[in-house]
Amino acid sequence: MELFRDRFDAGRALGQRLRVLLGDSTDVLVLALPRGGVPVGFEVARMLGVPLDVFVVRKLGTPGHEELAMGAIATGGVTVLNEGIVRRLGIPQVAIAAAVEREARELARRERLFRAGRPPARVWGRTVILVDDGLATGSTMRAALRALRQQEPARTVVGVPVGAPETCAAFRGEADAVVCVHTPARFFAVGQWYEDFTQTTDDEVRELLARAAHGEATALEAP
């Protein structure tokens, strides 16, 4: 497959596919996972002519094994626990509460930083497209999707420019629709399918969200 030039280029490719899928759907919202999903989501929202917001997710690390997620918290004050891990490791409620409190502070800090005072977008009853720059294991997207469902959207769509074939296939059993523009058989990492995969900065996220909030139709092109 041909490489995406950057995340904006990838967003345009994803936007074209989503436009066909959604047709004349109304009350659509794009929620991008920061930070790399925001440039992608910006282009998707621009092409569809719909609002853009961020959906911040924070992993809840297992005590003593922080790399293992015992759950996650997300925008809207939603907590999702991996009950299997909690039961198997006998994680006490006090440890869960401490992790939730710690990560909630960081989530709130990021939301203040990214939104600059704008309230979270309404999710209830809308068709919501969760966007990221790619799917490898899909753990962050999965946590976001499960948290999103608790806010009762009418329809959930997962959209990425590129993803591991098995991961994209797995999400078809979790979301109402899944769009992975490319699912290369030899998939090792998301970044290998971009010419420019420079890390998106907090300032870029803030600028793109501000542009989207003001209805600007021109993307901030990467150099």
Can you describe this structure in just a few lines?
With 223 residues, the protein is an alpha/beta fold. The chain has helices at residues 7-22, 37-48, 83-89, 93-115, 139-149, 165-171, 202-213, and strands at residues 28-32, 52-54, 57-62, 65-74, 78-81, 127-131, 155-162, 177-182. A hairpin with a 2-residue loop joins strand 3 (57-62) and strand 4 (65-74).
Task: Explain what this protein looks like in three dimensions.
This protein is of the alpha/beta class. Helix content is 39%, strand content 21%. The protein has seven helices and eight strands, in the order αβαββββααβαβαβα. The chain has helices at 7-22, 37-48, 83-89, 93-115, 139-149, 165-171, 202-213, and strands at 28-32, 52-54, 57-62, 65-74, 78-81, 127-131, 155-162, 177-182. A five-stranded parallel beta sheet has the order 2-1-6-7-8, sandwiched between helices. α6 links the parallel β7 and β8. The two termini are 23 Å apart.
Sequence-ordered SSE layout with sheet pairings:
Elements: H1 7-22, E1 28-32, H2 37-48, E2 52-54, E3 57-62, E4 65-74, E5 78-81, H3 83-89, H4 93-115, E6 127-131, H5 139-149, E7 155-162, H6 165-171, E8 177-182, H7 202-213
Parallel strand pairs: 1-2, 1-6, 6-7, 7-8
Antiparallel strand pairs: 3-4, 4-5
Note the main attributes of this structure.
single chain; 223 residues; alpha/beta; three-stranded antiparallel β-sheet; 8 strands; 21% strand; disordered C terminus
